[in-house]
Amino acid sequence: MDAPTLSDDDEFAAPTRAERSNSVATGSDRPLLAFFIPDLSVGGAEQVAITIMNGLAERGYDIDLLLSHASGELRSELSERVSIVELPPSKTPAVGVAAHLPALVSYLHRQKPAALFPHLEHPSIVCLIINRLLDTETNVIPTQHSAFGHEVEATSKDRIVERIVPRLYPASDRIISVSEGVADSLIEQTPVDRDDVSVLHNPVDVERIRERASQPVDHRWVEDSDRDVVLFVGRHAGQKNLDRWVRAFERVVGKNSNARAIIAGKGQCRDDVMATVERRGLSDVVSLPGYVDNPYRYMAKADTFLLSSRYEGLPTVLIECLSVGCPVVSTDCPSGPREILSNGEYGELVPVDDMDGLADAVCDTLADPPDPDRLRSRADDFSLQPVFDEYEQFLDEHVFAAATGR
């Protein structure tokens, strides 16, 4: 479906349900659900939102996705069952998603979705401003993806948002938290009541990951049985603490000369990571292939996955690794790793910034890897069916019951 546009003398109007049904295989008379994210660029929250929308659409829900920009590497992963609504471009780009306020109000009044699910804090703030100031029938339900108050690379805009969140989040009709740890951070640092927060884990398409993991990997170390491959896949950002990752791996290769590292992904810290690798004299044992379109094949072949993050929410990448039997070592950061790894039962947990501890845990895991079938079984706890069953129960209790007055 073509995204709607706005001309100088037109009022913004999203497609009606009848118009959607002509181009999308909508499934039922259930109330419409809307999601709002800025774009479809690569990111954990964006990937999670796509998986949720695709899964709910597959189960017969009518879904609209509101976007600031209908572009990004993940667009091809969005189901045709999901209708894209591109909000009018901002005439003042510096304002960011806040410039969409009039278009969002117009959309809500015209379409009257039963619920609007903003993902990421910037869109959530905009939606909650509407919820506080306007009389709308739509439930506004933000999803909190990371532990609140742990941002280490905040821009001035991020810091403003962090100050606004405690004031506006209580205006939510409900809040979804991706982990118990994220929920705890909200309760501790905002006036949000615990009874207003629902914990719904990120759904992970475990079967699709396993199918894609069977594809071959064109990398000299991955196919070399004499090499012990330590892997990272993700954004090269301050949150991921990749300087510590590289320095921990330096200790690993000092103890295990067969160890090799692959750091896949891209981001604003990529140049810093490359500089650290070169400065530490590790260029011969560390590969930085950039963005890879199928990281699961790397996970299936790697000997260990190392996550060195300062903070997370519910790091999907750990579940993805477990789903293909890849052993995991992670920092015990707030929050998510301890929850996924069940207090260290399914992978080593090490304090944040403890490079010696990370190196020792990696070496121990390489020397004595866990049973891969046991890891796969743990990943099944986060697979689509059980998580979407919980989502449907949530919708019945907190969205549709309110919409029908039950």
Question: Can you characterise this structure?
Answer:
The protein is α/β, with parallel strands linked by helices and 406 residues long. It is built from 15 helices and 14 strands. It has helices spanning 17-23, 44-58, 101-111, 121-133, 156-168, 180-189, 206-213, 242-255, 270-279, 296-301, 316-323, 337-340, 355-367, 372-379, 384-404, and strands at 33-37, 63-67, 83-86, 115-118, 139-140, 143-144, 175-177, 197-199, 228-233, 259-264, 286-290, 304-307, 328-331, 348-350. The strands form 3 sheets. It has a 6-stranded parallel sheet, sandwiched between helices. A 5-stranded parallel sheet has the order 3-2-1-4-5. Strands 6-7-8 form a 3-stranded parallel sheet. Helix 4 links the parallel strand 4 (115-118) and strand 5. Helix 8 (242-255) runs parallel beside helix 9. Residues 1-11 and 21-27 have low confidence and may be disordered.
Summarize the structure.
With about 400 residues, the chain is α/β, with parallel strands linked by helices. The protein is built from 15 helices and 14 strands.
Number of helices: 15
Order of H and E elements: HEHEEHEHEEHEHEHEHEHEHEHEHEHHH
The main β sheet shows up as:
6 strands, parallel
Radius of gyration: 22 Å
- State the low-pLDDT regions, or none: 1-11, 21-27
Strand content: 5-15%
Tell me the overall shape. Answer: globular
Mean pLDDT: 88
- Spatial strand arrangement across the major sheet: 11-10-9-12-13-14
Share of residues in helices: 25-40%
How many strand units?
Answer: 14
Terminus-to-terminus distance: 34 Å
Computed structural class: alpha/beta
